[in-house]
Amino acid sequence: MSYNFLFFLAGLQAIPRSVIEAASIDGAGPSRRFWTIIFPLLSPTSFFLLVVNIVYAFFDTFGIIHALTGGGPGKSTETLIYKVYVDGVVNLDLGGSAAQSVILMIVVIALTAIQFRYVERRVQY
To answer: If phi over 0 gives left and psi between -120 and 50 gives alpha, with beta otherwise, what is residue 74?
Structure first.
């Protein structure tokens, strides 16, 4: 099963049935119930998955790139995390590799901070 699916399933099971039933008794249709009740109550789960998936996008691609293409023809599939590996382990440029990993850490922290600052405002608890 997908990692995201499990979190969304847990989030859906945490929504009280009484709230959804009250909305249906009040005459809200299925789409109205989804957009006004279910979707806002799933926003903390969606926000968490957004942050985690963006961080994973930086680091989980390493194994695939290393196993399949090795950086690809003309470095077309080389990401920053793979470049850190190549510079540090293969080329033994430890100083450059360390500087690149600090840059990568700053980028990940900045993206996470931006998400917490601007996206979390729309998250309803």
So the answer is: left
- The whole-angstrom distance between residue 9's C-alpha and the CA centroid of its chain comes to 17
* Residue 122's pLDDT band (cuts 50, 70, 90): low
Q: Please, are residues 72 and 78 in contact by the beta-carbon 8 Å criterion? A: yes
Judge contact between 12 and 33, C-beta under 8 A: no
Largest Cα–Cα separation, the chain: 68
Task: Name which of 98, 78, 76, 102 is nearest 89 in CA terms.
Answer: 98
Average pLDDT over residues 86-110: 90
Q: Is 15 strand, coil or helix? A: coil
What is residue 75's DSSP assignment?
Answer: G
Place of tokens 């789960």: 45
Q: Is 105 exposed, middle or buried (0-12, 13-18, 19+ CB in 10 A)?
A: exposed
Instruction: Kindly provide the residue ranges of all beta strands, DSSP E only, lying in 59-108, ordered along the sequence.
Output: none
Q: DSSP secondary-structure letter at 91?
A: S
